[in-house]
Amino acid sequence: MRKWMKLNTLVLACTLALTACSSGGNSNTPADTGNAQDPASDNGFSKGKFETPVTMTTVSSVNSTFKFKNGETIENNIHSRWVKERLGIDLKYNWVTSDDQFKTKVRLDMSSGQKMPDIIFVTDPQLLTDLVDSGMYKEVSEDFEKYASPEVKKIYEDPQLWAQVTKDGRRYGIPQLTVAYNNDPVLWVREDFLKEKNLPEPKTLDELEKVMEAMKGTQVGNPPLALSFKDAGMPFVQWRGDTSWVFGAYGVIPHYWNKWNGEQLEYGSIQPQVKDGLARLADWYKKGYISADVGMVEVSKSDDTYKTNKSGLMAGPYFQANSARNFLQRNFPETKTKPLPVPAGPDGKIGRRYSPVQTGAFLISKDFKNPEAFFLYLNTMYVVGNPPKGHEFEKGWKEGYDYVTKADGTVSYVEADFPDKLKVNATKYFIGHQPFVDPQMLFNTLLKFYNGEKPSTPYEDMMYNNIPVEERANPKSVMEWQAAKIVMDQKDKAIQNLFLGGQTETMKSKWEALLKLETETFLKIVYGKAPIDEFDNFVKSWKSLGGDKITEEVNEWYKASGGK
After folding, report:
1. What is the pLDDT of residues 218-250, one digit of tens each?
2. For all residues of the chain together, what is the average pLDDT?
3. Which of 132, 236, 243, 411 has the fewest CB atoms within 10 Å, i.e. is most exposed?
4. pLDDT score, position 6
């Protein structure tokens, strides 16, 4: 049996946050810690702030999405100062570099014997594997059990979240988690077009083809379906302009390692069902349903033709409602967009990519004498991610940075309302560069709104107020909330990539060539430059040119990481 995504809905408990925020009646007190310790010996850890400040070193990278004001930097800003004042942790950066130089800089430090930072956040799977193998960073299970709060332990209770940092049954880092289902695709359609042509909402690939055929030769037929195949690693599985659902309709996802035929991991792109998906896409290309240069369309621009009223369909995550509301409907107010479930294939199968919640990991140096400092930070930041009422961050991080209070007393998160026209995303300053939140929280919140419930926490207030007031009057018509309902209803159709590790030994010398062979073959088939049976030749070549050996190594990794 293939392994489908199984996610237990976590119940977000605010007990810890409320307890931590009630000490002495001060709602701004940092989060309480997990297991009780002797207050006389823990330097204030159990009280939420170190009495004698603890220095914690790290490294960082920045890019164009980081914004600063008032002369601040990543080393010295409202967050780093708050951490020192409220937690007694003095964050020190050994160095800061650009994103594209981060891996090289870390490797230079490793090879030259430079002292490594106490805490390092890594997103690249290969660099993460190499750091774990270096022996410089510690196994974290004991510290996690000792110092993590009950709320944090609840969030991390699924063993699969730890796969990327697990080696021989031991855990060598704390995974950084993002929103579950965040990039899982739905099908976005021009509802006004369907009504105009008296067409039903498509539930199967065949019904979708009838819609695309009707769009040809109309305003929204240039092309009917907005997609992108341009990606160096996974061209047919995208966070936007995705086609995973086309292959999923045949029961497989290309580029993904999963248990397609038993208990061993196998590579999705060599499964026979991919041939059916490619044949379907080749037919769509021939009929003009997708762009003639689909292999050259940037992923980030894959919805441009939808936003500009040239395409009537697109596939992508829930937040592409913004493409419809802020671009299409603003410039073409007569249009109406609706999200739909991804369609079923000839045999009734439905499948889509699953968006992994792991975005990297925090590693703790063996030489760090105060690992509890990181856990005090972690525990507190999860409370900040979902603050109770009365908390200092219930509106945002800081007035004038990520929110402003308008003259009428209302809070605004719109950059144009800021006096200096500069809105700052302060979560970029965090170690890990993103909010610390329960992965299940966002979609549970959106589903709550869809069902007509009102917000009851500051986090929910912010999510609710992101939607225009006039749309909220009819909850079941709000595009984001509709999409969230669809995603959750189809969550058992989300298929995981079960290989999250760095390159195996054979991958290091063979993978680049194999991926090039795969991409070129698939695109030739879609473009009609190679017959569909060329797929069979690709599979034979892939296996003989190193693929079989890589499959063995991937399964060895899976076993060592605790996969079942």
Report:
1. 999 999 999 999 876 889 998 899 999 999 999
2. 91
3. 411
4. 35
Q: Whole-angstrom Cα distance, residue 370 to residue 232? A: 41
State how far the alpha carbon of 343 is from the alpha carbons of 9, 302, 315, in Å.
25, 20, 11
Q: Is 97 helix (H, G, I), strand (E, B) or coil?
A: strand
516: exposed, middle or buried (C-beta count within 10 Å: 0-12, 13-18, 19+)? exposed
Q: What angle do CA 318, 201, 473 make, to 5 degrees?
A: 55
CA 253 to CA 486: how far, in whole Å? 20
Residues 373 and 119: beta-carbon distance below 8 Å = no
Which of 83, 87, 77, 137 minimizes the C-alpha distance to 109?
137
Q: Which residues contact 542 (CB under 8 A, 6 or more apart)?
A: 267, 269, 270, 514, 517, 518
d(CA 274, CA 236): 11
Q: State how far the Cα of 197 lies from the Cα of 503, in Å rounded to an integer.
A: 50
Over the range 111-145, which residues count as b (16 or more CB within 10 Å of their CB) and which as e? eeeeebbbbbbbbebebbbbbbeeebbbbbeebbe
Largest CA distance in the chain: 77
In whole angstroms, how far apart are CA 69 and each of 77, 140, 405? 9, 36, 18
Residue type present at position 383:
V
Per-residue confidence at 469, pLDDT binned at 50, 70, 90?
Answer: confident
> What is residue 116's three-state secondary structure?
coil
In one-letter notation, the amino acid at residue 244 is: S
Classify burial at 49, counting beta carbons within 10 Å of its beta carbon; exposed 0-12, middle 13-18, buried 19 or more: middle
Contacts with 129 (C-beta within 8 Å, 6 or more apart), sequence order:
501, 502, 503
- Tokens read off for 536: 């069979």
Residue 31, pLDDT > 60, answer no
- Which tokens belong to 142? 């004991």
Give the Cα separation of 373 and 309 in Å (integer). Answer: 52
CA-based nearest residue to 46, from 13, 19, 26: 19
C-alpha distances out from residue 216 to 38, 280, 283, 289, 562, Å: 72, 17, 15, 8, 50
What are the tens digits of pLDDT across the range 400-413?
Answer: 999 999 999 988 88
- Number of neighbours of residue 40 by Cβ within 10 angstroms: 6
